[in-house]
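Quick one: structure tokens for this chain, please?
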Amino acid sequence: MKVLTVEKLVPGGYGLARTEEGAVLIKGALPGEVVRGKPVRRKGTLFLEEVEVLTPRPDRYP
């Protein structure tokens, strides 16, 4: 499991975070949020699965 901070939104509704392995796409995550999940590589792209938002944005809709 990795703990990451989302940097920005990218097309497709993904948040983007970076690790030593490269960029990671996180479905539904918002910039500034801290998330934890399992990195999985699919077709050469890293995605975070089993995502838990540890620190949500204050303006996140519940």
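The domain at 2-49 is CATH 2.40.50.140 (OB fold (Dihydrolipoamide Acetyltransferase, E2P)).
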